[in-house]
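Weekly structure sync, notes
Attendees: PL (lead), two postdocs, one rotation student
Agenda item 3: pending single-chain targets
PL asked that the sequence for the first pending target be pasted directly into the notes so everyone works from the same version. It is reproduced below exactly as submitted, 216 residues in total.
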Amino acid sequence: MKEVHKESKIIYSRLDYSRIQEVAELFANLFIQEEYLIKNSKVSYENYILATTVRAKHAATTGLSLVAICENTNKVIGFCINIDPYSEIKVDRSSYADKDPAFEIINSALSGLYDGVNLEEKPGVNFSIYALGVASEFQNKGIASNLFKISEQVAIENSFSVILTDATSPGTKKIAEKLKYTAINEISYKDYVFKGKKPFENIIDYYGPILFKKDL
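Predicted structure, written out during the meeting:
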């Protein structure tokens, strides 16, 4: 593990293959319990952990992602999955995409967030903070913000021009606004329609996914 920062007994490192399973499990548990889009899509844990495992393996391959490790326990307590959406190294979704109809709902909503957004569609330009999470007992300690800030440094070191993030829940929105990201598109959970139904209409305490952007 390549340590990049340490603060208050939390070690921030690049994600590598030794931490894939820990990240996949934390990712799945957190998002099914707390993340608005995933929780309300009704995706099963058994199917969602297939997706988070694929994502964690891909992230370890590219070297752009981060983990936060508790120094006392040597356990992963936070992660930031960062991707280049136009990289030639693609995520293989074939192992999970057709196993649960919820994945179609999730992907449709996130794809719609990018409708009409003008991006340079080539590798090495757009750095996406794809998934951010911190274990419940370590939340509200600045760890998520640190993962965000260190990710910005990773983007700069790798000569990306733009950082993007999808704020599908209030926590990411708060951090993005604090770090001076600009909201460039949004979708209403309450009004979102998928195949004639409104799968997220019960979400009333958060407007909906917001696409944030920062130029580097």
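Discussion points:
- The mean pLDDT is 96.
- The two ends are 27 Å apart (CA to CA).
Action: rotation student to compare against the earlier draft before next sync.
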